[in-house]
Amino acid sequence: MALLFELQDVGFEYDRIPALRGLSLQIAEGESVALLGANGSGKSTLLRILDALYFPSKGSTSFCGQRLTPELLNQDGFALSFRRRVALVFQNPDVQLFNPTVFDEVAFGPLQLQWPKEKVPSKVAETLELMGIAHLRDRPPYRLSGGEKKRVALASVIVLDPEVLLLDEPTSTLDPRSQGQIIDLIQEWKGSSKTVISATHQLEIVEDIASRIVVLEEGKVAATGTPAEILSNHELLLRANLVHAHRHSHGTLAHSHPHLHSHSKHEHEH
Amino acid sequence: MKRGGFLASTVVGFARALSRALMSEEIAHQPGLLQSLDPRVRVIGLFALVLAVTLSRKLAVVLALFLAAMMIALFSRVSIGILAKRVWLVVLAFTGVIALPAIFITPGNPVATFAGGSLRITAQGVATAVLLLARAETAVTFTTLLILCTPWAHALKALRFFRLPQEAIAMMAMTHRYIFLLIETAGQMLESRQSRTVGRLPAAEQRRMTARTAGVLLNKSIALSNDVYLAMQSRGFRGEVRILSDFRMRSWDYVGLLAFLCAGSIAVWIGR
After folding, report:
1. Considering the domain boundaries, does residue B18 fall inside one?
2. Who among B227, B233, B242 is closest to A111 (CB)?
3. Which residues form the domain of A186?
4. Are B247 and B155 in contact (CB under 8 A)?
5. Do B213 and B133 lie in a common domain?
6. Which of A28-42, A106-120, A252-266, B110-124 is predicted with the least confidence, judged by mean pLDDT?
7. Are residues B65 and B138 in the same domain?
8. pLDDT in tens, B217-260
9. How many domains would you assign to chain B?
10. Are B152 and A53 an interchain contact pair (Cβ–Cβ within 8 Å)?
11. Does residue B71 fall inside a structural domain?
């Protein structure tokens, strides 16, 4: 598989507070990767760097061999081609919903990316159907429930049919049924030629959405491996703040052990 | 509810209702006089009338333009009640504060005296204050009609047609969303504060809390609107507004444009 993203010794700071510290990572075309980490581990920042919304203060990021820089993204030709190929779903759907109706919201991307106008309405309608939100088409996005907003945010990116999907906490704030539907969708993309990179701290979904896990800890890669390798490494999960020590007692005997749930196996160790 | 809390909730409630009305663009999608015109005609026409208002020196002309604004509102299905409550009262409060001193400081024929003659209201002062108020009310009414009756994306595209730079359009697009986020965040913070406040705080503590809240509100809404801009960029926005419908001038649009320009020119001529 051809190399898609290459990050070398990437550093990034918010007002002198480091978010990423010397992070190096390679992602190949068609891979499905889960960026696993606790809150503040740098997952969202990394996704924004991959989407060329942020640029590293140290190190470099390359996409298909081209170094991503603000100057390159200012070039109309490259920006258009990059935005057509790579799309990001933000963690907070509210920041992604700024149009007066759901239809306008989903049509925003295709119009900005200069699709033929006659193609836009049918593709938007098709995407609304696919996401089960066709009945919301004329509603203002801010009047929707949390789950509906998340679906509209996903629809606004899925409509673009990008080669690379960056998903920031794709199932957070969703009820179990909606979570299941989003996981099904990601699994479909996993089986296709798309590259799917999801940031999450939910251990129970990583096996379903990724074939490789990158564990982030304090802005660095702490480990990479298959879901089976990572999920069985309790010491790593504890250190990366992804599981907590569960204290309880059996009669008079009190003890503690890591506490984790797995969605697919519903493993619940005691 | 305490008086202060009631006032704050009422102000935030009004602001929320207005910003939601603007965001949902319900009025802009209704059939009506302004809505039937090409967005470019709306932008040029209503700006021409705003210019006429600011250049007119005669109260009668400004009042005639105000009447015209009310007629346009009626034919564009904009509720006069909404304009009165959410526009005219607010403008009256803000402009009134600026216009009030003019009643006393403008030299001229006194119509009333106070404090042993040291404070005088002059006829010229009253006329100046009324003209200032009438101009502000009329100009803001025309601008509000443009905003209420034109989807924001169409208004921005129309401005782009007049060669406004992409950067300015991007800033306006963000400002629109920023105001909405600011009001929404202010509403949520007020509700959260009310849910955690029992009894009445001392005045000094209230002032400190208000200052802290204002700072946090500003930071939160700036961070949110930065994220909104990133989300727009991520889906290809580069300052150029693109919408589904293409602007096309029909004969009705030319009639509308001519009517606006004639009304503006006549008002400037008579009111000079």
Report:
1. no
2. B242
3. 32-54+75-259
4. no
5. no
6. A252-266
7. yes
8. 788 778 888 888 899 999 998 877 788 877 888 999 999 999 99
9. 2
10. no
11. yes
Same domain, yes or no: B43 and B141: yes
What is the mean pLDDT of the segment spanning A89-114?
89
Residue B257 lies in a domain: yes
Contact yes or no for A173/A150 (Cβ under 8 A): yes
Burial of residue A98 (number of CB atoms within 10 Å: 0-12, 13-18, 19+): buried
Where in the sequence is the domain holding B82, given as residue range(s)?
25-151+246-272
Tell me how crowded residue A160 is: count the other CB atoms within 10 A of its CB.
23
Answer yes or no: are the C-beta atoms of A206 and A36 closer than 8 Å. yes
Instruction: Tell me whether residue B161 is in a domain.
Output: yes
Distance from CA of B240 to the nearest CA of A (A): 8
Residues of A in contact with B149 (CB under 8 A): none
- A120-124 own/partner pairs: CB under 8 Å, 24+ apart: A120/B244, A121/B244, A123/A159, A124/A159
C-alpha torsion sign, points B25, B29, B32, B37: positive
Chain B residues with beta carbon closer than 8 angstroms to that of A121: 244
Closest by alpha carbon to B38, among B194, B203, B256? B256
Residue A182 domain flag: yes
* Residue A142 near residue B23, CB atoms below 8 Å: yes
Q: Please tell me the distance in Å from A117's CA to the nearest CA on chain B.
A: 6
Residues B33 and B139 in one domain: yes
Q: Is B161 found in the same domain as B145?
A: no
Report pLDDT for B152. Answer: 81
Tell me what pLDDT residue A147 has. Answer: 85
CB contact under 8 A, B24 and A100: yes
Q: Name the residue in chain B with its Cα closest to that of A88.
A: B234
In a domain, A40, yes or no: yes
The CA dihedral of A246, A248, A253, A257, to the nearest 10 degrees, is: -10
Q: Are B244 and A100 within 8 A, CB to CB?
A: no
Instruction: List, in order, residues 6 or more apart from A178 with CB less than 8 Å away.
Output: A147, A150, A151, A171
Indicate the number of domains in chain A: 1
Same domain, B58 and B134: yes
Beta strands A212-217 and A164-168 are unpaired
Write the CATH number for A215. Answer: 3.40.50.300
For residue A32, pLDDT over 90 is answered with yes
Same domain, B119 and B32: yes
Report CA Rg, chain A.
20
B33 & B127 share domain: yes
Contacting residues of A for B230, CB less than 8 Å apart: 48, 53, 90, 95
